[in-house]
Specification:
Strand content: 35-45%
Length: about 375
Amino acid sequence: MFFAVIGHSEDIDADGALEDLIEQCKAELGDRPPQAGMMFAGHEMDRGFLLEGVCDTWPDLALIGCTTDGELSSRLGFRQDSVVLVLFGSDRVEFTVGIGQNLSEDVAGACSRAVDAALADATQAPAICLTLPESLTCSGQAVVEALSDKLGGDVPVFGATSGDGYELLNTYQFCGREIFQDSIPVLVLSGPLVYSAAVASGWEPLGEPGVVTRSDSTLLIEIDGRPAMEFYRRFLGPDGAATSEFPLAILNEHGAVEALRTPRWEETDVAGAINFMSEISEGASVQITTADRGAILHGCSTSVEKAFADYPHGKSPEAALIFSCCCRRLLLGTRTKEEFDIVATVLGSDLPVAGFYGYGEIGPPDSSEGLPMYHNEVFVSLILGT
């Protein structure tokens, strides 16, 4: 048995929001005790008050969470400046949490501490790891690689990085009733969990690929020995700009897209260089991509439909987690709510679903199965059950 219940409130009053979450979840729980939870909160919500209230209501809850750039649930669909609480329980699957602090100072160390804390309380083999880390202070890809190294290649990692309403200043992570910054919380599910997952974006390659010949972390300096901006303008024209509308695809050895990287439209100290939301390594094969709103929504549909189709036959899904990108929200504008409409159409209105818009998404490569990667501008679908 595996279950999930959802609470979602857009009440701007903290007391009212907490009351909504508790009443909604208790009504769905009945006499079933929750064992774990995730809270996704708009960055202006009174997160401390909400965490205290939830943990006072369920003192033994293994809880993680973060601030966001928009919230999603099967109760209210897409909202901003709201709070979502998803509670889990099972008679077979274990839920354990951990936190790693000072992520920017020691990525590997922080990830190791978070995983060690979570696995210390587990008595079964880990099945998956959910994480909601900081990304403004460190490389998202480095975080994903450190988690994978610590967990081993057989434990997939899913999640998204924290947001702050696209202010790009300060994000917050939660573990239990405590609030952190520059940290990585993890929720490890151990035991006979059944799941399926998929990642898709909707963006398509434009022009010819190139090779990164010079970069420094998130600063892309040269492609094919020429300034990175020249590469963009070769295909977009002399007035072309490196924006979130034209993310850069990282290609695998077969030329298939593995992940996207979003440009940050800001001045750099290096002429012709472009700053990105995550690092791009020297030697990487890259290609500009493009999409319109319809293609972006098609990417959402592709992700959810593939995850649903890949769920083990003969098993019934019990819950789903979804993670989308702040840039998808910005580009979709008034059509943002259609992403969740697609989810509800594919998965049905009765399945508990929760998620949020973050600054980077974590899941398998866009093109195939494999070790988890850090993505930009994709939609991650994760379906859970036993």
